[in-house]
UniProtKB/TrEMBL annotation:
PROSITE patterns membership: NUDIX, NUDIX_BOX
UniProt-listed SUPFAM superfamilies: Nudix (SSF55811)
Gene Ontology annotations for the cellular component aspect, listed alphabetically: mitochondrion
Name of the protein described by the UniProt record: NAD(P)H pyrophosphatase NUDT13, mitochondrial
Domain Nudix hydrolase: 17-144
Coiled coil: none
Co-factor(s): Mg(2+); Mn(2+)
GO molecular function (one): pyrophosphatase activity
Catalytic reaction(s) noted: NADH + H2O = reduced beta-nicotinamide D-ribonucleotide + AMP + 2 H(+); NAD(+) + H2O = beta-nicotinamide D-ribonucleotide + AMP + 2 H(+); NADPH + H2O = reduced beta-nicotinamide D-ribonucleotide + adenosine 2',5'-bisphosphate + 2 H(+)
Species annotation: Camelus ferus (Wild bactrian camel)
């Protein structure tokens, strides 16, 4: 009887809230990571790829499908990192993974229905963005600097892991 629930006062039916599983994946080619942005992101912000799990799909299948759908790349290996509840807008469970793409297959084929932009970023570029104070502040020339999700987001943690330590990818997909 533990857990979140609501009981209807008129008929005593118990309702349990649903949670939607979402994979969030930081893709790497070994030396660079792939980050993308959606049009509603703050200007200059790039993040890891993300997408909802379909019914009957494993996490590995979801990672492979989402990466292929959004940027046209084939995942070679993946590694689970962590998870985070994300309450808004639909109560999601964010399941964070690192993935590598097949060697020599790094040409991005952007799905403009899903993303506004995607690009490969070098380690030094990402490390600088992680250290930046006030990342969403417009520069004097009117441009917005390359920035990353806030520290409380699991995407930020994925990116930070990639910068701070090499990930050993052990699960073939």
């Amino acid at each position: 009887m533990a857990g979140s629930k609501r009981v209807c006062s008129s008929n005593q039916i118990i309702y349990y809230p649903q949670m939607a599983p979402v994979v969030i994946t930081l893709v790497s080619d070994g030396t660079r990571c792939l980050l993308a942005r959606q049009s509603f992101f703050p200007k200059g912000m790039y993040s890891a790829l993300a997408g909802f799990c379909d019914i009957g799909e494993s996490l590995e299948e979801t990672v492979r499908r989402e990466v292929a759908e959004e940027v046209g790349l084939e995942v070679e290996r993946l590694h689970y990192s962590a998870s985070q509840h994300w309450p808004f807008p639909n109560s999601s469970l964010m399941i964070a993974c690192h993935a590598t793409v097949k060697p020599g297959q790094t040409e991005i084929r952007l799905n403009l229905r899903e993303l506004e932009a995607a690009a490969w970023f070098r380690h030094d570029e990402v490390a600088i963005a992680l250290r930046r104070n006030n990342p969403y502040t417009q520069q004097q020339n009117g441009a917005f600097p390359f920035c990353l999700p806030p520290k409380f987001a699991i995407a930020h943690q994925l990116i930070k892991e990639w910068v701070e330590k090499p990930i050993r990818f052990t699960l073939p997909v």
